[in-house]
TrEMBL record:
The keyword Endoplasmic reticulum does not apply. Functions as an ammonia transporter. May play a role in the elimination of ammonia in the gill. It is a multi-pass membrane protein. Belongs to the ammonium transporter (TC 2.A.49) family. Rh subfamily. This is Ammonium transporter AmtB-like domain-containing protein. Residues 29-390 form the Ammonium transporter AmtB-like domain. The keyword Transport does not apply. One of its GO terms (cellular component) is plasma membrane. It is found in: Membrane. It comes from Zoarces viviparus (Viviparous eelpout). GO terms for molecular function: ammonium channel activity.
Length: 418
């Protein structure tokens, strides 16, 4: 019989967080300084801060509220999202600044480096969505540190070996984060999840908060896709914003239509609307550098919504039964499949735009290598992280305490109301 109370994390969580945070403070005190020449890249604080703010809203509010659909796990979803985001961002700043430290002796921090670090943190937030509710905050912090390390390594490999532009390598965060998370949930699979967990439910109130997070993400996604586009080409940044908005608009309409078509009663599934309306933004973000016409972005958004909605409808259950992969937030359908579609669209559009067959073949080879490196590294890092987290030393919650805020938060009134 399982214990009545979840394992206490007093001997694990506080020492881990304090050790990491004090270590970060020491590193920042010795090696990190704020960039004083804010106009070095042609931008100013007043022009770039709104874009940084948009990305910050997406990472903290958008992803935080998006995962609050579980009726007994909404506090943990939003609270641990903030914890993971800030820890991952601090770590990403250090990792991204290693080259600067090597050549200059200091890690320079400005709004640009903060945005890149938060986008690295977003990849970790995607990953933890796959294991949400079945892990404790110690697991989540370790996942964030290792996932960000793998993602930064992948970014460095792509830029160094294949000369992939920085914006293209960073936008692969959807593919890297989703496959990393799927590997984790496969390794950490609980036999009890072959049957639905008792508390893995959602209701109208938590669904409304989750829809709020989805709306935040939908509204600010154009900034997310365009923030790293070269400021010296205003037309490219405007094109990124317009293409992302059109893809998001089409994906929202298509997701509603496909959801109603796939329902026996012809009704729209709220979970489809919470997740699949973002598919167009994911897909067009991965293929951004190759999208030049509005119809291209709209076609990508349409196809991404169809693939995402059908995947969410049928794929999640089959993966759980056939592959023993319990994907809580359906990150494969929300980020993985649209990300792969965006990668394919980038390949096809780039080949279509080229006149030289030799150049097209060479690009295709490099583009395929980009995907293979990204997936291989994400799966490898996911396996390493999963094996580390299987250690009982981290005190994972029992099956009866999965998807339950009371395992980690002090809410005495929940015992009465629930």
């Amino acid at each position: 019989m399982a214990p009545q109370y979840a394992p206490s994390l007093r001997s694990r969580l506080p020492p881990l967080l304090l050790f990491l945070q004090i270590g970060f403070i020491v590193i920042y005190a010795v090696y990190v300084e704020i960039e004083s020449n804010i106009k070095a890249d042609g931008t100013t604080f007043s022009s770039f801060y709104p874009e940084f703010q948009d990305v910050n809203v997406m990472v903290i509010l958008g992803f935080g509220f998006l995962c609050t659909f579980l009726v007994r796990y909404s506090y943990s979803a939003s609270g641990f999202n903030l914890l993971v985001a800030v820890m991952a961002t601090q770590w990403a700043i250090i990792l991204n600044g290693i080259e600067s430290w090597y050549y200059r002796g200091k890690i320079r921090v400005d709004l640009g480096s903060l945005v890149v670090a938060e986008m690295c943190a977003a990849s970790a937030l995607i990953s933890i969505g796959a294991v949400q509710g079945k892990t404790n905050p110690v697991h989540l912090v370790l996942i964030a540190l290792l996932e960000v390390s793998g993602f930064v390594l992948n970014e460095w490999l792509l830029q160094t070996l294949l000369k992939v532009p920085a914006v293209n390598s960073i936008m692969l965060l959807h593919i890297f984060g989703s496959f990393f998370g799927l590997t984790l949930t496969w390794i950490l699979f609980r036999k009890g999840s072959l049957q639905p967990f008792e508390k893995e439910k959602f209701d109208r109130q938590t669904g409304l908060f989750s829809m709020l997070g989805s709306v935040f993400l939908w509204m600010f996604w154009p900034s997310f896709n365009s923030v790293l586009v070269d400021n010296h080409s205003p037309g490219r940044k405007l094109g990124a914003v317009c293409s992302t908005y059109l893809a998001l608009a089409v994906s929202a309409v298509t997701a509603a239509a496909v959801s109603a078509l796939s329902s026996p009663k012809g009704k729209v599934n709220p979970i489809h609307m919470q997740s699949c309306i973002l598919a167009g933004g994911v897909a067009v973000g991965v293929s951004m550098s190759a999208v030049h016409q509005p119809w291209e972005a709209m076609t990508i958004g349409f196809t991404a919504a169809v693939v995402s909605t059908i995947g969410l409808k049928y794929l999640k259950t089959h993966m759980q039964l056939a592959l023993e992969c319990h994907d809580t937030c359906a990150v494969l359908s929300t980020h993985g499949l649209p990300g792969l579609l965006g990668w394919l669209a980038h390949l096809l559009l780039q080949i279509k735009a080229g006149d030289d067959h030799t150049t097209a073949i060479r690009f295709a080879v490099f583009h395929i290598c980009t995907l293979l490196i990204t997936i291989s590294l994400s799966l490898s890092m996911g396996i390493i992280t999963g094996l580390l987290l299987k250690w009982n030393f981290w005190r994972p919650p029992q099956d009866k305490k999965c998807f339950d805020d009371q395992a980690f938060w002090e809410f005495p009134h929940l015992a009465v109301k629930k």
